[in-house]
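Checked the freezer inventory, then went back to the computational side. Two predictions to log before the end of the day. The first one is the construct we discussed on Monday; recording sequence and C-alpha cells without edits.
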Amino acid sequence: MNIKKLTVFSGIDKNGEAERFKKFEIFPGNTVAIVGPTGSGKTSLVTDIEMLAQRDTVTRRKILINDKVPPFSYRQDPSKNPIVLITQHTNFLADLRVDEFLKLHALSRKMKSRGAVPKTLMLTNKLTGEKVTENMKMTVLSGGQTRALMIADSIVIGNAPIVLLDEIENAGIFKKEAMGMVKEEGKIILFVTHDPVVALLCDIRLVMKNGSIMKILRTSEREKKARKRVIEQDIMISVIRERVRRGEIIKF
C-alpha cells in the first residue's frame, strides 16, 4: 500500500467553533506527538484518523490519503486497512496462545504466517523486560507484554503504513526503542502522549485544547538540544525505577 501523504482538514471544537487551521499534512517518516490535558480531544483526533473521517464524526474533520477520499474498503476489509491503532486499553477475551493469535491475525491480513511469528516475538522481546514466548496465553500477558506484542505485530503482520500509538509510556515498555523501531520502517506515526521525551523525539507536536488542535509545532534545533538533557534525566529515572522494582535501597 503506497501512502505518500495523510491530510487532516480542520473541523470544530467542543463549542462548535471552527478550528484555527485549514489543514495539515503528514508524510511517510514523519513522527507526530499529540499532546494536551485529559479531555482535550487527543483520542478524538486519532479516532478520526483511524476511522478516516469524512465530516461524519462529532469533530467534523475530514481525512484524505494521497489527496483523495479513501476507498470505503479501507474501513471494511482488515487486509486493506492502512492504519493500525494501539490503544492503552487492550484486553484479550479469546484464550489463545500467542502464536495462535499471531497466525490468525496474519490470516485476516491475507499474508503467510511462516516466519512472521518468530520475527514478531523477536521484536516484542526487544521492547519489554518480561519475555514473551509463543506458547503463553494471550490472557495472561501483562500490560507491558501486551503493548510490546501489539507494536511488534503492527510492524510485522499489520504492516500498515500509518500507526497510531496511544500513550506507549504507560505500559512500562522501552519507549525509545519502540519509537526507533517504528521510525525505521518509514511509516507515518502519531503518538498520543503525556511524556516529554516522546513528544520531543517527534518531528511535529499537535497541541490540543477543548477538542481542537490549537497549535502545530515543529521541533526546533533549540528543542533538540534541550531534549538531550531531558533524555538523560529520563534514563536516570528509568534506572532508579528498575532498582526500586528489584527491591534495592536508593542512595545519593
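The second is the one RB wanted added to the comparison set:
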Amino acid sequence: MAVREQLSTHWRTFRWASWLGWQMEANWTNWYLFVIYSIAKPIAGTLIVVIMYLIVFGGVTGDPTFFSYMYLGNAFYIFIGQALFGTTWVIHEDREHYQTLKQIYMAPISLFVYLIGRAMAKIAVAGIAVIITLAFGMLVLQLPLAMLNIDWPLLALALLIGLLCMVSIGVALAGITFLTAKHGYGINEGVAGIFYLFCGAIFPLTVLPDWGRAIGQAIPITYWLEITRRAMLPGSGISTISGLGDFSNVQILSFLLLSAGIFLVFSTGIFKYADYLARKKGKLDMSTSY
C-alpha cells in the first residue's frame, strides 16, 4: 500500500511538473507566434550547419551518405541540448528568478522526480524541433529518408535509452548548479560543447586524434547518435563513416546501455552529494543574479 501511494505521489509530481514546464515554455506569447517560433528556430539552426557544409563540399548531392550523417547528427543533437538545459536550468530559474526552490524543496515530493518532470517539457519542444528539422531536410535538401524504411523499434529503443541518459546527466549538472552562482549556464554550454565535439555529432570520430577518439568512445551520447543514424537509414552504409562500423547494432546498443548505466550511477551520486553540500552550506535559497 505504501509503495502504491509513493508511486502515485511520484506520478502526480511528474505530471504537474511537466504541465508547469510546458506552460513556462509555451505560454509566453500567442499560440500562432509560438508555432512560428517553433518552426523557424530549428530551421535557422540547421541552415547554419548546412551552409557550412555547402561552402566546404559545394552541394548536398555529391556525397549524400555523408550529408545524411552530418544532418541527422545535427538534428538529433537538439535533444541533447534541450535535455541538459531543461534539467539544469530548473534549479537556476526556481532559485534565482521565481525564488520558489525552497518551497518546492520543503514540499512532500521528490525533487528528483520534479526535475525530470520539468525536463519533459523541454524534451517535448525538442521533439517537435527534430521532426521539423527532418521534414525540412526531406522536402528541401533531398535527405534520403523514407518512413517505411526506418527501423522504428530500434529507433524507439534508442530514443528511450538515450533520453534517460541525457536527463540523468542533466540531473548531475543540476546538482552542481546548487553550488554555483548564476554561471550554471556556462557549465551547460561547456558540457554540451564537449559532447558536440567528441561524440560525432557532425563529423566522425575518425577525424579526432587518438585521445579525442578515446574520450568519445567513453561517452554514451556517441553510441546513441550512432544507433539513431542506423535506425533512420538502415542498410545505407552510414555506419561505415563513424569509425564504429565494425560493431553490430546489438553491440552498439550494449555499449549504449553499459555507458548510460555508469553515467546514471555517477550522476545520481553527484546530485545527492551536491544536494547534501547545498543544505549544509545554506545555498538552497541564495540569490546571485547580480
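For RB: The two ends are 48 Å apart (CA to CA). The mean pLDDT is 84. Let me know if you want it refolded.
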